[in-house]
Amino acid sequence: MMELLKQLPHIEPYGNPQYFLYVITAILPIFIGLFSKNVLAGMKYWLVSSL
Length: 51
Fold this sequence. Notes:
The chain is mostly helical.
């Protein structure tokens, strides 16, 4: 098991695992904004085309 762990990439440059939480927290609003923009555009198209 230790041999397998030694082969994995080292995450020392990233400090502690909180780094990944910061990255996810920073990127998540971008994806939410893109998704909601597409959903709202689709809903607007659906509402206009159904009239």
